[in-house]
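Methods, example record. To illustrate the input and output format used throughout this study, we show the complete record for GNAT family N-acetyltransferase. The sequence lines were provided to the predictor; the line carrying structure tokens was produced by it.
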Amino acid sequence: MTGTEATTKIRPANTADAAAIAHIHMTSRAVTMPYLRPQRRDHAQVTRWIEEVVLASCRTWVAVRDGEVVGYAALEGDMLEHLYLRPDIRRQGVGTLLLDEVRRHSPDGLSLYVFQSNVEARAFYERHGFTVFDTDDGQRNMEKLPDMTLRWTPYDAHR
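The corresponding predicted structure is encoded as:
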């Protein structure tokens, strides 16, 4: 077990986590996706969206290290809607821990959307067995940026 796995715990999210999740969501998008337009919603509005939409419609988990929420993942059906980390803890195994938890709850497979220009995220998911299912010119997302659907199917689902 690595130090990250020993000190980072994954647990179901609750409404008390909403403000921390909103902060991670906003900060991560600003740092890792500079090609997106600046966020028009403030922290309170994003927190409300996390409470009323994400936590209400998705199974959501948080990664907790030293008592602080450092990342989250949200699953709706077999679609990974969100997986975001605090920028300062990227590349420390936390994203893998969250993804592993989501996959445990997706025995028949998992899909997600990723912007085509998000090379780092695409590489992360490809390292974890995701393949390109389709591509789109941006008409299906509100940012209007070309994206792709990635799909992971567990070995046992092919039998």
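Annotations derived from this record:
The helical segments are 3-7, 18-32, 43-57, 94-104, 119-127.
The longest strand covers residues 68-76.
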